[in-house]
Predict the 3D structure of the following.
Amino acid sequence: MNVPSTQPSPSDRNRLRWQCRRGMRELDVLLEGYLNRHFDQAAPSLQQAFADLLQREDPDIWAWLIGHAQPPAELADVIRRLQQQP
């Protein structure tokens, strides 16, 4: 999904929210929390990286978040922000 350089439309935002619902409760909490608290203020490139992250497999995302694997360079910033969010 391409996130436009302006705020996502309600349908795009709903699609992102749906994609935040994963097979792991821990990922649900982290991803939805980021979407609710940080996504709208993020730069367009970071919004796109978050949308791209949501296309990845749960085990990969989890391994990146807990530091068991290095994320691809294009996702490193969004992973770091997810790790640091309150």
